[in-house]
Every structure is written in structure tokens, then in C-alpha cells.
Amino acid sequence: MNIFRALLAIQCIYTLLTALWPLADIESFMAVTGYKIDVWLVKTVGALLVSIALCMGTHLFIHTDHRPVVVLCITSAIGFICIDFYYALNDVIRDIYMVDGCFQIVLLLAWCYIVAFRYKLIKAAGVTDVIVK
Fold it and tell me: What is the pLDDT of residue 75?
């Protein structure tokens, strides 16, 4: 398994697990993350994250242009970083969310490395039109 597929699998599984947790057991989720008034909203976000995780997962099994899933992975990590740190540092949500924010930073840095490394290889090869696989 190459680094692209490994990172994609890690982010897919992590996203799927964090998405399913509030859907499967909202009580344990709230025990860790804090009481939520709008449980429906937590479950809606969980359901949407399942879709994102499944999109990531399908790219592990298809041979196509992977740039869209890279954009999805990078932008979802950036979104979580911003939300986790902004609201935790402003005491809106529990500090445990900053653990997720730190993991998202690791994912973002790994994706940036992969994109930069692949760009360097593509540029060195002199290729102008490429499908990233």
C-alpha cells in the first residue's frame, strides 16, 4: 500500500468512526464531548460525515483521477481544524475537540506533503497533463 492509499484509508476510517459514534450511541458521545441541546443536529452531521467517509473509501477501490478526493480530504481537515480550535478556545465546546483538531492537523500536513511530493515528481518528469493515481 502506498502512502496515498494508507493516508486515505486512515482518514476514511477515522471519519467513519467519528461519524457513526453519535448515531450509534449518543449518550456515550455526549459523555465525552459534552451535553448537546440539538441532538438532531449532531446526528445530521454524523450522517453527512458517513457520506464523506464513504466517498473517501470508494477511492481506495477505483482507478481514476484522485484529485477530487484529495480536495475533499484537505478541505474537510481544514474545516475541522477551524471549528475544533475556534469553538474550543472560545469555551463553546469541550477541549477534547482540540484532540481531534490536532489529528486533523497531522492529516492536513500529510496531504500537503503528498501533494507537494507528487507535484515535484510530475514537474521533474516534464508531464503537463496527468491523472494522479
Answer: 98
Q: Exposed, middle or buried, 51 (CB in 10 Å: 0-12/13-18/19+)?
A: exposed
pTM over 0.85? The answer is yes
Burial class (CB in 10 A: 0-12, 13-18, 19+), 27: exposed
pLDDT at 128 over 80: no
Stretch among 15-19, 60-64, 97-101 having the lowest mean pLDDT: 60-64
Q: How distant is the alpha carbon of residue 1 from its chain centre?
A: 19
Q: How far apart are the first and last CA of the chain?
A: 12
Chain-centre distance for alpha carbon 126: 31
Q: Residue ranges of the alpha helices (H) in 26-125? A: 26-33, 39-58, 67-89, 97-125
Contact, 104 vs 77, CB < 8 A?
A: yes
Cell of 34: 459534552
Q: Among 87, 88, 69, which residue's Cα sits nearest to residue 11?
A: 69
